[in-house]
Amino acid sequence: MTKRILVIEAGFAGMWSALSAARLVDEQDAADVEIALIAPEPHLHVRPRLYETGAAGMKAPLRDIFDAVGVKFIQGTVERIDVERNEVEGTGTEGDTFTLGYDRLVLATGSRLFRPGIPGLSEHAFSVDQVDEAAELEAHIARLAERPDTPARNTVVVAGGGFTGIETAAEMPARLRAALGERTDVNVIVVDRNRELGADLGRGPRPVITQALDELGVTWRLGSAVSAVDAGGLTTSDGHRIDASTVIWTAGVRASSLTAQIPAQRDPLGRLHVDRNLRVKGVDNVFATGDVAYAATDDEGNYAMMSCQHAMNLGRSAGHNVAADLLGLASVPYSQPKYVTCLDLGPWGAVYTEGWEREVRLVGAEAKELKQRINTEWIYPPSADRAEALAAADPRRIVVA
């Protein structure tokens, strides 16, 4: 009787989970094991690049790769998980509902931008969280030239001074001038509740970040949260008004809401606590990976970030271990002790750091070259060559990107 490993979603962690499980199944010639992946479409959305232009094209096709390695793709969206019955319920592309059983489940449903109940936020703020949302922002910027030349039209406010907010803000002066004219006096402002820019990035790269943004003409307003957004701009918690035709919300993400359907412990971001094999603690047949997994990267107390860098290797480990568990083979515990960051700073360049203390190693054009390689090569799927794809999915092949 055929046994099924079911992977939910085709993001970085889901894609690599499916490929890694296929690698071990192929190695063991386990013809009685089916690997299925269910997602709304057979594409990897290259989310780390959505602050760039051309957002609508930031997708990589997956159908040929899945066909090459023997992963069954099911188009649809999972809405309910029943861990007692080992099955999921979902909706297909035509609105039809379905129920699908599994022997082992890999939850790889990622994260979404967190939008708190700030008045006007959902109606008036843009984001770069998903492909369609980033494309909507891009179309909006292109249409700004149709409006009267006012300070508000020429102003972009980026709400959130974290990784995504900084990368987005660094791109905005050039993007505005491309839309409005090179001589336009543009104004890009970062608003953040923290007292320091890039608070989560630590002290190491902060001088580089502030220098770059300053030279790009980006300003910031710190220690003040957004209290309301409207069609003409926003108001901060200290009563300051900023008139702007464009407000971009980047302040934080939360794990997929499907994690709430797994009867297990979650962290404040909604991530499921997993063991070193990425099995959800207390739920034997469910593994979690990527942004839905609260996973230790080492024995020093560090945990995976909600990032592409960690998701790729979390996926490789989860896929191997879920297949190994089903086949009665040895697991490969997840470990990713090396941590790096490479922050894009627009036309100025980039800053590359190593270690959890984020020691700066490269800045400017040299770091930018590395960032471009990461964004255009390293994070993309392998080719549809069967041998190459399976080899790339080996969990012992740790990739830092």
UniProtKB/TrEMBL annotation:
SUPFAM superfamilies: FAD/NAD(P)-binding domain. The keyword Flavoprotein applies. It holds the Pfam family Pyr_redox_2. GO terms for molecular function: NADH dehydrogenase activity. PANTHER family: NADH DEHYDROGENASE, NADH DEHYDROGENASE-LIKE PROTEIN RV1812C. Belongs to the NADH dehydrogenase family. This is Pyridine nucleotide-disulfide oxidoreductase.
